[in-house]
Design a protein that fits this description.
heterodimer, A: alpha/beta, four-stranded mixed beta sheet, 9 helices, 16% strand, elongated, B: mainly alpha, three-stranded antiparallel beta sheet, two-stranded antiparallel sheet, 21 helices, 5 strands, 61% helix
Chain lengths: 325, 454
């Protein structure tokens, strides 16, 4: 009986004391060091993407993310919380700490072109306010392209196309002439307005296009264009190509607009196509970036880009048809 | 493949250890907390598989030990120390170590249905796990759920049925462990069959004050293969004539025994072989789309994957093999039923399949084994650092040298498979040429594995 009693004691220890001591130790640790550790595994999308892809933390909680990659180099960014890890090398563990100071859902994403499906590598940090764990969803105004009913799936070719690439520098000479809301109207619209102005009759089409280029550059500002260039290199170039011609390596097999209409261009948009780019208003481009292209392969960026980043990216896109030097 | 063997129980220390009633309990007392921790970390720990004890210890460490060490060298040793059926068995016995009088069991004692006295259910259970394995192997919660399900089914079966019915007929792992344990150079067997015949009480089967009747529902005197021997050593304890022993023997000795060869076991061999091939394609092949599809359980693409997966296991590979058997039958002008010949030849796949699994396992085990140190210190991924190894970086072991292990393993498996095929042809009184199609099948399979692994 003594032997059985001993064996039974050991088994009870395994089933009761052992688990209790594990959870007890964690409880004690949490009291001593209130930083909550969360492991985040960055897997290529084909292997499951972010694990976990939803991280729930409490408002005010101090969190340490331990991010590792089992396959290729990834990046990590939570734009709305200002958290970023530039490089997660396979085998290495990157740690980043933050305190969630406002409740809400904050998307995060990989910032390295880890695979053809890189853009699908996204997740959400959900910061929950224990006092109000289920807040009513905030209603935000629909984006302007929706308010203005701009059909972003239709082609908007420019009515006017310059014979040469307009130069913002030359256009500075006519700085006072360019006017109008540059986000609502397309460059082609603005050019048409200038051309219709009798006082500008003496100026050639080319000069007026230069003025339009200047207007866009001036409205954007050099800093925004520079930030847009960085965003483009990080998030867009793999598909749309470094030159903006829609010839990026990752985008080669994407259907593009042909997914909607077989007569349309196949593959990512060509930003050097003056007819399309000059016919598109900034709002139209914003809509495409916000929502993404249904079935075209273009991801949505609404959850990852701030408004400012969105406009910065669009500012840079204009440089493919306007000479901003 | 000669019939030489060495009685290990002649060594007093070995005999003493095996005869001790504490042996099995002590080993389970080690594996049980590990199993429990694997379940707890799966349910409550980090969902990041590579940082979760449950995933790393079950699917990397345990798997490596099972496929690369235990199965080829110790047969069903794992079954003797497996913690899954232990609670049920203890409840059946109402004892943990000491035997009840007469080896009595406290269970409803239902008999397993005769029609299910085979491993078809184990084949189906393994296929079910294999079909979802990409998810099970990488998702701690799902993995813990599956392990818990195994434990609950084992417990329920122990309370309702006699002895280790779960291990014998239901355990998805037990089926292939039994099949591949035929290769191991170790066996528990009676010493003298004539002596058994004189022993009327048959305590090795019915139990005695010294121990329980064979939990695996085997009459040890008829044991001629490792397939259904759980190596629990109860028969060593209950035999009053000291007529059961542990032997070291030549590798693959059981493959020389034809008695008891069955279609369900043959299919187990096909399933294991096909799964090794498909895992190599899906998990370590360069086709991300396949891995992605295997993950996307329930999607239209996954249904195609599932249908192909099952068809490959149950129809395509056995079908190709059947064509080889029919060709061999024709070449060797072998008389007799094709079905029986198909079953006989299927045992060729035992060494071939084990080698394929070992080679496949080497590739991911060496790459992922370094995660072990992290999860030992921080099993839940909660930020612990129990042994100071929580922040050790992942680093593949012997990354450039895997081929030096894998190629010899595959070649040994191929050689053994062809040897078994030639022997089978000889036993059919056919010329060695009759084994050519089977040998070609084995060669083609090995070649594909080599291409996939490298």
């Amino acid at each position: 009986m003594k032997k059985e009693f001993f064996a039974l004691t050991v088994v009870l220890f395994i089933f009761v004391i052992f688990p209790a001591s594990l959870f007890g130790y964690q409880r004690w640790r949490t009291n001593v060091d209130p930083v909550r550790v969360i492991d985040l595994s960055a897997n290529a999308p084909a292997s499951g993407g972010w694990v976990p892809d939803t991280i729930r933390v409490n408002l005010g909680e101090r969190v340490r993310l331990r991010i590792s990659s089992p396959d290729v180099v990834h990046g990590f960014q939570v734009p709305a919380l200002g958290i970023s890890v530039d490089e997660i090398l396979p085998g290495h563990v990157e740690q980043v700490e933050f305190t969630a100071m406002r409740a809400g859902r904050f998307p995060f994403a990989c910032t390295r072109w880890c695979s053809a499906d890189h853009w699908r590598m996204r997740g959400v940090i959900q910061v929950i306010d224990p006092a109000n764990p289920n807040p009513a969803p905030q209603k935000s105004a629909p984006p302007l392209y929706q308010q203005l009913k701009i059909d972003i799936d239709a082609m908007h070719p420019a009515a006017n196309v310059p014979s040469a690439r307009p130069s913002a520098a030359r256009g500075a000479l006519l700085a006072s002439t360019a006017a109008g809301d540059l986000r609502v109207g397309s460059p082609s619209d603005v050019f048409a307005n200038l051309r219709a102005d009798a006082t500008l009759k003496s100026h050639s089409d080319s000069q007026l296009w230069d003025a339009v280029a200047f207007a866009w550059k001036h409205a954007s500002g050099d800093a925004a264009i520079a930030r847009g260039r960085e965003l483009y290199a990080r998030d867009c170039a793999a598909c749309h190509g470094e030159s903006g011609q829609g010839d990026g390596l990752v985008g080669r097999n994407l259907p593009g607009m042909a997914a909607m209409d077989s007569s349309m261009r196949r593959g990512p948009a060509d930003f050097t196509d003056a007819a399309q780019m000059l016919g598109a208003s900034d709002l139209l481009l914003q809509g495409k970036i916000l929502r993404g292209g249904m079935g075209t392969g273009m991801p949505e960026w609404r959850t990852l880009y701030t408004d400012e980043e969105m406009w910065d990216a669009i500012s840079f896109l204009r440089s493919f048809v306007f000479d901003y030097k | 493949m000669t019939d030489q063997r060495l009685e290990l129980t002649r060594i007093p220390l070995v005999k003493r250890i095996l005869a001790s009633r504490w042996l099995q309990w002590s080993l389970i007392a080690i594996t049980l907390p590990v199993f429990l921790l694997a379940i707890l970390t799966g349910f409550f720990g980090t969902p990041a598989g590579s940082r979760n004890f449950g995933i790393v210890f079950v699917w990397i460490v345990w798997w490596a030990l099972l496929i690369l060490v235990m199965l080829p060298f110790a047969g069903r040793l794992w079954c003797a120390v497996c913690p899954i059926p232990a609670p049920g068995e203890w409840l059946q016995r109402r004892a943990l170590v000491q035997p009840r009088a007469g080896g009595r069991l406290y269970t409803l004692g239902w008999k397993w249905h005769r029609r299910l006295d085979n491993i078809w259910l184990q084949n189906a259970a393994f296929l079910a796990v294999a079909l979802f394995s990409v998810v099970i192997l990488t998702t701690p919660f799902v993995s813990a759920l599956v392990l818990t399900l195994f434990a609950l089914v084992a417990l329920g079966t122990s309370l309702l049925f006699e002895r280790r019915t779960f291990c014998r007929y239901l355990c998805p792992v037990g089926g292939f462990i039994g099949l591949y344990s035929q290769v191991a150079p170790i066996e528990v067997r009676v010493k003298d069959h004539a002596l058994c015949a004189t022993h009327k009480e048959k305590t090795c089967y019915v139990g005695s004050d010294a121990g329980y009747g064979c939990p695996w529902l085997i009459f040890p005197a008829t044991l001629d293969r490792n397939t259904y021997c759980g190596m629990c050593t109860e028969c060593l304890k209950t035999c009053p004539l000291d007529n059961v022993a542990l032997y070291a023997r030549t590798f693959g000795k059981d493959l020389l025994t034809h008695r008891g060869r069955r279609l369900d076991e043959a299919y187990k061999a096909f399933i294991m072989l096909t799964c090794a091939l498909l895992y190599s394609i899906v998990l370590i092949g360069p086709w991300a789309i396949l891995k992605e599809t295997a993950y996307a359980v329930g999607s239209p693409a996954w249904w195609f994957y599932a249908i192909f997966f099952l068809a490959a296991n149950l129809v395509i590979v056995p079908g190709i093999f059947l064509v080889c058997v029919v060709l061999g039958k024709s070449i060797g002008r072998i008389q007799g039923a094709t079905r029986q010949l198909f079953v006989e030849y299927a045992y060729v796949l035992v060494p071939l399949g084990l080698a394929a699994w070992a080679a496949f396992s080497v590739s991911f085990v060496l790459i992922n084994l370094s995660y072990t140190w992290q999860v030992l210190s921080d099993p839940f991924g909660w930020g612990w650092n129990l042994f100071g190894t929580a922040n050790w970086q992942w680093s593949p072991y012997w990354a450039g040298g895997q081929a030096f292990l894998q190629i010899p393993i595959l070649l040994v498996g191929l050689g053994a498979a062809i040897a078994v095929a030639l022997r089978t042809a000889r036993e059919q009184r056919a010329s060695p040429r009759a084994a050519l199609p089977i040998a070609a099948f084995c060669l083609a399979f090995t070649w594909v594995m080599v291409l996939l692994i490298f």
